[in-house]
Design a protein that fits this description.
30% helix; six-stranded antiparallel sheet; alpha/beta; 271 residues
């Protein structure tokens, strides 16, 4: 690549974000691969820096680079991709890594934590709903949820390695201030309250904001508690049992009422 010519920057995004590729200097992985094979960059004399946005996997990135090499474009195209350090399975509470939205989690101060947003092309929230150029709002809400879980698991719950915690959200409110697009974004967690004295019950309040292109895209306020798992699981089981019993009893009463109406017989409610 020429040392004197200023490279043009081309942004690559996952195929799921084809709507965003309506922008200049943005292409999906498939569009870029097709253009390389059509010779679009063979006659372009300017150097091009190809930078990964959201939705580009390492495997896709390697395939794109291999194609560039085979087509003799390696000298003209400079590839800029960094593998994100995803939050662990037990931190984001996700079994499949494609659904993990938190990466490069770090502590910036006593009450301040940050991470980079990572949206996989096959994320569960994109598979059946992706319209327009922006990333849908439920990704923002889920990113805030995963952020408070990851911060709590890594920096607080990890002090009590003999315990397993069950997280209960008490309140969660998100204000959307700007569209989020499939490019670099930063998530910031600001602790408002952290009650850590009782290891069986950790209680928190926090503000979680998402930033992109010098603007705040959203802010989420959340209060939540991490309970000792055996305690909350027993309580959850009792309430589930009550819900089942109530539903069965109601269904039986409705069936009895329907049968009586068909025969003209009176029904003793609650009998």
């Amino acid at each position: 690549m020429s040392a004197t010519a200023a490279p043009r920057t081309l942004l690559l995004v996952g195929d799921r974000f084809v709507g965003f590729a309506a922008q200049d200097d943005v292409l999906t992985v498939t569009q870029f691969t097709d253009e390389m094979h059509l010779g679009v960059y063979s006659w372009d004399t300017l150097p091009i820096r190809v930078r990964a946005g959201q939705g580009v996997t390492r495997r896709e990135w390697e395939l794109v680079r291999e194609q560039a090499l085979l087509l003799g474009l390696a000298e003209r195209l400079e590839f800029d991709f960094r593998e994100p350090a995803l939050a662990g399975r037990g931190e984001a509470h996700k079994h499949r890594s494609c659904n993990t939205l938190i990466a490069d989690l770090r502590r910036d101060g006593e009450d301040l934590f940050s991470a980079t947003l990572r949206v996989h092309n096959d994320n569960e929230l994109l598979i059946d709903h992706q319209t327009g150029e922006h990333v849908q709002g439920m990704v923002v809400v889920e990113a805030a949820r995963q952020m408070f879980l990851a911060v709590s698991e890594r920096y607080h719950a990890s002090r009590h390695r003999d315990r397993s915690y069950y997280y209960v959200i008490e309140s969660l409110n998100t204000d959307f201030e700007n569209f989020l697009f499939p490019l670099d974004a930063t998530i910031v967690y600001h602790t408002l309250r952290a009650e850590l004295d009782d290891p069986g019950r950790l209680s928190f309040a926090a503000e979680i904001s998402l930033h992109q292109a010098g603007r705040r895209a959203s802010i989420t306020t959340v209060t939540y508690t991490a309970f000792d798992a055996p305690v909350i699981e027993a309580k959850e089981h009792r309430r589930a049992q009550y819900a089942v019993e109530h539903t069965v009893r109601t269904a039986q009463q409705a069936a009895a009422a329907a049968g009586a109406a068909a025969t003209g017989q009176p029904v003793l409610v609650g009998a």
